[in-house]
TrEMBL record:
rRNA-binding in keyword set: no
This protein's name: Inositol-1-monophosphatase
Record keyword Metal-binding present: yes
UniProt similarity note: Belongs to the inositol monophosphatase superfamily.
EC number: 3.1.3.25
Keywords (A to Z) from UniProt: Hydrolase, Magnesium, Metal-binding
A Pfam family hit: Inositol_P
Source organism (scientific name): Limoniibacter endophyticus
Top-rank taxon: Bacteria
Length: 266
């Protein structure tokens, strides 16, 4: 598959950062780890990977701005373009030796996501998408799953934890979804969750309290794989509230309805 110049730039940055993450994953017990907030860890591995991506992308496209998890917003001279980067999505998995984590890189042009990449350096699975150009896992074109009933579906989610607000509403959502689906999965990497939905491995996914860098690349992957994603309120701009619901058209619609069902008192 011939990749565009911009995807080649993103793939090269992710490959280099991925080698750094894979090395650090092999010696995870020696990494310096610090706490950003309750339950919110960051390691040297996150920072090294982010530094690599920052310098590779800056060199290839001087002047583009950045929004990165560890650096925050870095304004560029070029106000049309911005990279949205999570250098390590799934830090908790990483620090526990669980090989479910990914690099997520998206390129925004005039406020629209133009290209997206999600890369798991341990499985060497590379997900890429360009606006209007389809979504791919390595060289294979992706399509969201075709199952249209929740009863047949496996649905991914993210479970709130220490430091992520009050959780009562989530338990209601989870109870509603549990009652209607074939299975629920909790992987611990929002970027991989979205990539798995794009690849048709999971039929749908929902989570709250996410940031742009968790979802920017994954949303494009899903849309380019024929899927739908929105906030829980059905808004297209998921950066507004930080919740996300994804799936094919039928599952996306069914999930939106199901998570909002009122609490039943038995
Ligand atoms: P991270 O590993 O990059 O921090 C897991 O459900 C998802 O939530 C992951 O994408 C993870 O991204 C993110 N996450 C983990 N801890 C978080 C926190 N304290 N606040 C917001 N998002 C978090
Ligand atoms: Ca983090
Ligand atoms: Ca993240
Ligand atoms: Ca991260």
């Amino acid at each position: 598959m011939a990749r565009s110049a911009i995807l080649n730039v993103m793939v090269a940055a992710a490959a280099k950062a991925g080698r750094s993450l894979a090395r650090d994953f092999g010696e995870v017990q020696n990494l310096q780890v610090s706490l950003k907030g309750p339950g919110d860890y960051v390691s040297q591995a996150d920072k090294k990977a982010e530094d690599i991506i920052y310098s590779e992308l800056s060199r290839a496209r001087p002047g583009y701005g950045f929004l990165m998890e560890e650096r925050g917003e870095v304004k560029g001279e070029d106000e049309q373009h911005r990279w949205i980067v999570d250098p390590l999505d799934g830090t908790t998995n990483f620090l526990h030796g669980i090989p479910l984590f990914a690099i997520s890189i998206a390129l925004e042009r005039q406020g629209k996501i133009q290209a997206g990449l999600i890369y798991n350096p341990i499985t060497d699975e590379l997900y890429t998408a360009e606006r209007g150009g389809g979504a791919f896992l390595n060289d294979r074109r992706l399509r969201v799953a075709a199952r249209s009933r929740l009863a047949d579906s496996v649905i991914g989610t993210g479970v709130p934890h220490l430091g992520r607000g009050h959780h009562g509403f989530y338990l209601v959502e989870l109870r509603n979804v549990m009652a209607e689906v074939s299975g629920i999965r909790r992987m611990g990497s929002a970027a991989l969750d979205l990539a798995y939905v794009a690849a048709g491995r999971m039929d749908g996914y929902w989570e709250d309290s996410l940031n742009a860098w968790d979802v920017a690349a994954g949303m494009l992957l899903i849309r380019e794989a024929g899927g739908f994603c929105s906030t829980k309120e059905g808004k297209q701009d998921i950066f507004e509230t930080g919740s996300i619901v994804a799936g094919n058209e039928a599952i996306h619609g069914a999930l939106l309805k199901t998570i909002k069902k009122p609490v039943k008192t038995a």
